[in-house]
Amino acid sequence: MNKAVQDKLKPIFTISEDVEPLSEQLAGNKEHFVFLQKKNKVYAYVFLKDLGVDSWASPDITLKRLQSNAISLENVGILKPNNTITLPFIFWIMGEPIVLVKDESNKLIGYITREDMLVELFREENKNINLLKILLASIPMGMFVVDHERRVVNCNESGLRMIHSTLDKVMGIEAGSIFRKDHLEKVFSTGETLLNQIHITDEMGVLIDYSPIENSQGKVDGAVIIVQDLPMVKEMAMEIEFVKDLNQDLNAILSTIYDEILVVNEKGILLRHSENYISDFWKEDLKNIVGKNLLEMERNGVFTPSVARLVIEKGKKVSIVQETESGKKILAIGNPFFNDEGKLQRIIIASRDITENTKLKSELMQTKEISRKYKEELDSLRNKTEASKKIIYRSSKMEKIMIQIRKLAGFSSTVLVLGESGVGKELIAQAIHKEGNRSNRPYLTINCGAIPENLLESELFGYTKGAFTGADPNGKMGYFQQADGGILFLDEIGEIPTHLQVKLLRVLQQNEVVPVGGAQAIPVDVQIIAATNKDLGKMVEEGTFREDLFYRINVIPIYVPPLRERSEDVPLLAYHFLRKLNQQYGKNYHFTPDALSLLEVYTWPGNIRELQNLIERLFVTADDEVITANFVSQFLKFGNNGKTKPMVTGIIPLKEAQDHVEEQLISLAMEKYKTTTKAAIALGISQSAVSRKLHKISQRQKNH
């Protein structure tokens, strides 16, 4: 044991658990540790700091409290004469705040604090120095030891590598010149540990922990700085520069776009815009509107409706036609963009003046590019399955139907296809056949409403030889027998006569048919797909359709939504029909993007059949291969075309009557169409006129 250790040696201050009072035993202890003795054996120590009191004279100290905070001496490192200092010994003494010291006879003679012990090991010029260097070098994190003068007194190679420096440049210099001086001063002044401090300079990018080194009196006598390399920090800095460049590119792109482009956040606040904008629509420079909420501007009557609001409410793409005070028609399209969690993050609004027909050449190039993309999408859709070749769609509603059809592939359940006229119910039936396990078996279709009632029975069930006058002498197989093993599609099943419903029910229940004029039942294995555009539930209530038959065919109902409920399918269908006509007649007609957007806005009461007919009408009557929105708008009638005359029951002033009719019309239009733009289209007036009249009606109602 060297002299330095002997100088640092502190006496063992013991108190006996068997002697009272406790306060007298503790009196006079000036050190931070006391040792507990029981039956003349020292077995544990207590650190004053762990008790949360300032001195051993505190009245809060009790024997029970000492025992609950006692640390067994078995956990404490022991220093003996001629001890060999090893790495395990160093790690052992680092575990507790004190090291016990014994003499040659193994008698406990005192203790030394951990800090004093480690300092002596650092100072000793022998093999211990190498052991400590090995200890520092073995730590993968960088470590710098700072003394009370804030100077670096030791470090390891990992730390030097992380800060890109050398030992001769670091040793002895002020630590604040390398690391954050304010952080270091906070550790010395408060004794607190600072964790996870990011430090980025031109030379380094590291994560730093600052920890105080306290002496035996509890005062900060130095600090340990732990450094972790952060290669990602440099990458983040480079990524920030990349984002800045990307932002400049975005601004450059926005400045060259012909359309008006608005970027709006999920709350409706305008973030940025293109240099080109429609001055007739905005009453001030768009630069003054950046940062303002477009939804609030709509509520304040600056404009209506807000495309941003419609996108937020519906959570999908929205297209509307707006009108300026000067009468210009503006097509505004809002597209939502979602983050990885599916939450709305941005709305991109593109607006174009569709009253002008300038820049057709550039639009034609754009149209051809869009056509190419639609062609690729169509080809991709065709390759999904053989069944989907005839079904053109991109909407989620139709995708759900196709998924349901694929699920039906392994079953022969009866299917009821519901939907308005013209939505493609027969195509759905064909898809079920192609996808199912009966795809190689017969598929027959019969329209129950197109065949006279007196012939429908024989067509469905067949007849025997001589069944009725004029019958085939050899008899005839009905549709059920012809479709044996396959699928029979009963279109317009709501038109089937009541007396035949009973016979049809027997086929479904017993899987057998009795031909007209026959007496013997013939077994059949047929999957039934029925379709109707009628409300069979209501027909059951009215007694025109059997309830038992309804439940028998309504095993797997599939509702095909009308085109107005899946407007995103319209551009793809329009392109499909136009391409077929181009191929048939050797032409090269194209829609402009505005024309497709206008078709998407229309409600299509006749569904796909109406759309197909309109595309052919546009194809035949167009003077130019480029079909524009202006040309399309001539063939679309927005709103209700039905006209009814208002009923007049008494004489009132003409002006009062006009105001009364106008108020009713405006109110009815707003109730039905919800937005002033759609109401204006239905009423044949401008959107601004509807807004003004609504305001006037509101004021009149308040006055009354």
Describe the structure.
This protein is of the alpha/beta class and 704 residues long. Helices cover 41% and strands 20% of the residues. The chain contains 28 helices and 28 strands. The strands form eight sheets. Strands 9-8-12-11-10 form a five-stranded antiparallel β-sheet. A five-stranded antiparallel β-sheet has the order 14-13-17-16-15, sandwiched between helices. A hairpin with a 5-residue loop joins strand 15 (318-323) and strand 16. The longest helix is centred in the middle third of the chain and has 26 residues, at 231-256. It starts with a helix and ends with a helix. 24% of the residues are buried. Residues 125-129, 383-387 and 640-644 have low confidence and may be disordered. Residues 391-620 form the Sigma-54 factor interaction domain. Residues 314-366 form the PAC domain. GO terms for molecular function: ATP binding; DNA binding.
